[in-house]
Amino acid sequence: MRYPVGGEHQREAKGKKHMFRIDFAISYAGEEEGIASDLHQLLQEKGAEVFFAKNEKVYLLGKSLTSELDHVFGPYTKFVIPIVSESYVQKYWTKYEFSIAKKEERKRGFEFVLPIRIDGISLKGLKGDVIYIDLRKEGLFGTAEIMMRKLRDIYPAEVVTVPRDWVATFGLVINDLIENYELPPYVPRSYVPLCDWLEKDLMERLSKSPLEALKLLEDSRDGEALSVRVGFKWDPAKSPLDFGDIGWWEVLEIAEFARIYEGKD
After folding, report:
1. Does residue 60 lie within any of the structural domains?
2. Which parts of the chain register pLDDT below 70?
3. How do strand 212-221 and strand 225-233 relate by DSSP bridges?
């Protein structure tokens, strides 16, 4: 199915190209975080730049949330994807994000809000004849493909370049690790030497994965937790992302290298 797009829509979209920083901003209630996370990963694997709030904690820290949301769900993005549910229509922040998106849509004069429905709830503020994607029928893979086709239809002159250089942030809480896992007896228990050992443990685990050009970039230690950033090469068009067995480590963030380390090689 190809979406009909008028020339005026395309010209206006091209005219605003310089403003955009992301392709999609996902608006969701906490109860649907899992769905939002899976959709974020699928779109990212297809080469899209996606705002997913859970992965933006570092970026948002210390900033004015309302000011940032005004930009992210407004002029900085090409499309907003609200995941409409019973929880979504009741939450303050989702209502706020949607209100910003509706204002932006009125300015653009063509489709900007691309709603996904996961239950029978309707979103107040959308016209009754606006077409939703029904996740129950399309599934996540089908939904991601429709979103990417919409992106290419509205912005036909743009070629989505799939990045190959990536950064993953892994983390753990030291006390949780000691309490919940049986560490080898030779592993030090004091914070600094334990962190040193854990970083080697992570790199050894990742070396057994299919990922290429692994490099430990930096770490963050606060006396209680440890987070580690690792660079790697990966082509989303050729294979799914696979870290292998990372054991006690949690994946905190996955992002393009250029986004984290702008201007660096």
Report:
1. yes
2. 1-19, 157-163, 237, 262-265
3. antiparallel
Is 1 part of any domain? no
On whether residue 2 sits in a domain, the answer given is: no
Residue ranges making up the domain that contains 216: 165-260
Q: What is the pTM of this model?
A: 0.56
- At 6 the pLDDT is 33
Residues 99 and 60 placed together within one structural domain of the fold: yes
Q: What is the 3-state secondary structure (H, E, C) of the chain?
A: CCCCCCHHHHHHHHHCHHHCCEEEEEECCHHHHHHHHHHHHHHHHCCCCEECHHHHHHHHCCCCHHHHHHHHCCCCEEEEEEEECCCHHHCHHHHHHHHHHHHHHHHHCCCCECCEECCCCCCCCCCCCCCCEEHHHHHHHHHHHHHHHHHHHHCCCCCCCCCCEEEEEEEEEHHHHHHHCCCCCCCCCCHHHHHHHHHHHHHHHHHCCCCEEEEEEEEEECCCEEEEEEEEECCCCCCCCCCCCCCCCEEEEEEEHHHHCCCCC
Return the pLDDT at 8: 35
Residues 32 and 122 reside in one and the same domain:
yes
Of 105, 131, 154, which marks where a domain is finished? Answer: 154
What confidence score (pLDDT) does residue 265 get?
56
Instruction: Give the per-residue pLDDT at 18.
Output: 42
pLDDT at 217: 94
What whole-number distance in Å separates Cα of residue 78 and Cα of residue 168? 25
| Whether 172 and 46 share a structural domain | no
Please count the structural domains in the chain.
Answer: 2
